[in-house]
Amino acid sequence: MSNALEDVCSDKLLRQAVDTLQVKANVFDQLRDAMRIAPKSGSGGLNSDGGDEDMDAIKKGVEQFRQKLTSDPQYPGLGHYKKMIAQIDKYWDKLFADPILVDSPNSKVTIYPQRTNNVMERFFRDFKRGDRKKTGNISISRTLQAMLADTPLVRNLKNSEYLKILLDGCQSLEERFSRIESQEVRDELAKAKNSPEKIPAKIKKLIAQPKLLEIIARLFKKRA
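The chain above was modelled as a monomer; its predicted structure follows.
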């Protein structure tokens, strides 16, 4: 065993690759520290929610990171770093977009746009992990193709604030669904039939069930 490890450790190409990766990892750690994303000190990794940070301080930190990297004499020959800087420059306005002030029934609410797609990536990872546990399939393409477009919104039921808005004063999802006019649902389903979008056969069979709303209400009630 020791002989095998000795051969690995003495491999010059492997050691060069490790050294290169360590340098790149260090640069990446500097970037995520500047952007306050997935801190090294935390245990959440890519699922970290981050903290309440001052946007101007984050912007200044990224500017300093960019300046430090691009001022390196070797930077012109480092294509991988140039691509990273190009991406930062491309989405700069979105990374540091100003907060949006909107009117709500009670008062004005400040909304901070998402700087990255980390929230969606976390949702997708969680969804993929759950589907693999249920089906044992590595690929989830069939599951995604077969589901209704708004199915992912069901995941928002875990958010208490979202659920409160959805219930609109009702005590349960079943009570909330009882407010929906059946004719309105039939009209929407009729429009869907005329849609050029291809609907999987299993979904068509589900829509055709006369007690579809009752089935959906029971599912939502279990989720709640």
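DSSP finds twelve helices and two strands in the chain.
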